[in-house]
TrEMBL record:
Record organism: Minwuia thermotolerans
Protein name listed in UniProt: ATP synthase subunit b
Location within or outside the cell: Cell membrane; Endomembrane system
Residues annotated as transmembrane: 6-23
Primary localization: membrane
Homology family: Belongs to the ATPase B chain family.
Complex and partners: F-type ATPases have 2 components, F(1) - the catalytic core - and F(0) - the membrane proton channel. F(1) has five subunits: alpha(3), beta(3), gamma(1), delta(1), epsilon(1). F(0) has four main subunits: a(1), b(2) and c(10-14). The alpha and beta chains form an alternating ring which encloses part of the gamma chain. F(1) is attached to F(0) by a central stalk formed by the gamma and epsilon chains, while a peripheral stalk is formed by the delta and b chains. F-type ATPases have 2 components, F(1) - the catalytic core - and F(0) - the membrane proton channel. F(1) has five subunits: alpha(3), beta(3), gamma(1), delta(1), epsilon(1). F(0) has three main subunits: a(1), b(2) and c(10-14). The alpha and beta chains form an alternating ring which encloses part of the gamma chain. F(1) is attached to F(0) by a central stalk formed by the gamma and epsilon chains, while a peripheral stalk is formed by the delta and b chains.
Listed InterPro entries: ATP_synth_b/b'su_bac/chlpt (IPR002146), ATP_synth_F0_bsu_bac (IPR005864), ATP_synthase_B_chain (IPR050059)
Function: Component of the F(0) channel, it forms part of the peripheral stalk, linking F(1) to F(0). The b'-subunit is a diverged and duplicated form of b found in plants and photosynthetic bacteria. F(1)F(0) ATP synthase produces ATP from ADP in the presence of a proton or sodium gradient. F-type ATPases consist of two structural domains, F(1) containing the extramembraneous catalytic core and F(0) containing the membrane proton channel, linked together by a central stalk and a peripheral stalk. During catalysis, ATP synthesis in the catalytic domain of F(1) is coupled via a rotary mechanism of the central stalk subunits to proton translocation.
CC terms in the record's Gene Ontology section: endomembrane system; plasma membrane; proton-transporting ATP synthase complex
Length: 161
């Protein structure tokens, strides 16, 4: 029996397990495995928490990016509306200025026409007065004629101007 290797293997096996129980190795191994499992569980929970936090931050950034795009769209739309209002105001101001200039030009033309008519009328009066005076001088002779001519010339000038 002492010469049989199976016996010695069995004795070594029993001694090994007895030593393990004596040194409380199974409890220590279990405690180390439990500690490692707890540490891994904690790391997994931390990783899960970090993942959720990262997803929350990502959702916040997406929401902020959408809000920024919407704000940019609102700004662009507002700028477009403002540009249209400004362009319309400039058009109406330009039309009003053109109407004022047209009215001024028409007024100047009317004044020039009236001035030309007045000048022609005055010139015609002067010519008519000179012609009448010449005709009357040639037709009427003497003091009575001269007096009649002078009175007529004065009254014609007063009536025509």
């Amino acid at each position: 029996m002492f010469a049989d290797p199976t016996f010695w293997v069995a004795v070594a096996f029993v001694l090994f397990f007895a030593l393990m129980i004596y040194l409380k190795l199974p409890g220590k191994i279990v405690a180390q495995l439990d500690a490692r499992a707890d540490r891994i569980r904690g790391e997994l929970e931390e990783a899960k928490r970090l993942r959720e936090e990262a997803q929350s931050l990502y959702a916040d950034y997406q929401r902020k990016a959408e809000e920024a795009v919407q704000e940019a769209d609102r700004i662009v739309e507002h700028a477009r509306e403002e540009a249209e209002r400004t362009a319309e105001k400039m058009r109406s101001d330009m039309e009003a200025a053109l109407e004022r200039r047209k009215a001024q030009a028409e007024s100047k033309i009317a004044q020039a026409e009236q001035q030309a008519i007045d000048e022609v009328r005055n010139r015609a009066v002067d010519i008519a007065t000179a012609a009448a005076a010449r005709i009357l001088r040639e037709e009427l002779k003497g003091d009575a004629g001269n007096r009649l001519i002078d009175d007529a010339i004065g009254s014609v000038g007063r009536h025509l101007h």
